[in-house]
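Notes from the 1:1 (GR / supervisor)

We went over the backlog. Supervisor wanted to see one worked example end to end before approving the batch request, so GR pasted a single chain during the call. The sequence is below; no edits were made to it. Supervisor asked that the structure be written out right there so they could see what the output format looks like.
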Amino acid sequence: MTDDTSGLTLVSWNGTRYRFDPGALCLEFLTTGGPGPVGRRYEALHRPDDLADWLALSRLHLDPDRLEIDPEELSTARRLRDALWRLVCARTGGGPPSDDPADFVATPADLATLNQVAAGAPLAPELTAGGSRQWSLPARGGQALATIARDAIDLFTGPHAGRIRECGAHNCHLVFVDTSRPGQRRWCSMERCGNRHKVRSLRARRAAD
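Structure output shown during the call:
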C-alpha cells in the first residue's frame, strides 16, 4: 500500500467537517461516489478536472495543473471505483444500502477491471534532494488509476487483507483498513462516529442512573 501522509477532510450530512484516514489509497478513492442510486447521489467525478482535484487532495498529493485526464480516463476511474466498492464489500460482508443488492455484489468483471487497470503504467516515484518521495509529473490520469489499482491488489494480498472493515456506526458505511497494533479500530473517525458513540453511551449511563 502507499504510505504517504494521508487523510481526507470530509463533510457529513449536517455540515460537520471531520478527518477520515482509511489507511489505503484505494479506500480513499471510494469516497468519490459508488454504484447504484446511493453512490450516484454522492458522485464527485463529473468532469476530468474533478478527478484531478481529488488526486490533489488524496495521499498522492498530485498537482492538478500537471495532470492530463481525458473523458475516457474519467470513465475508467468511475468503473474502477465501482469495481473496488464491490470487491471491498465482498471482504467486509457489508455495504451501503441499495434498492438493488446487486449494486454491491462482486462479479468476475470487477476483478477483471481491477487487473486491467493495474496492468497500465503507474506513476513513477522520484527522490527529492531533501530525501523524501514525490511523484514524477506531468503524468496521465491513467497512471494515477494504475497506481490506485495496484494499491488495491497490495491491500487485498498483504498482511492487512483481513482487517478491511466498515465503520461500526449503523448509519455510516465508510470503509477503512485497521492498521492499529491491537486491531480494534471500530470507527471511520473518532471526530465523527466515535464521538457520537461516546455521547450516546454517556446519555445511556446517565439515564440508567
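Supervisor's comment: The beta strands are 8-11, 17-20, 67-68, 125-127, 133-135, 139-140, 164-166, 175-177.
Batch request approved.
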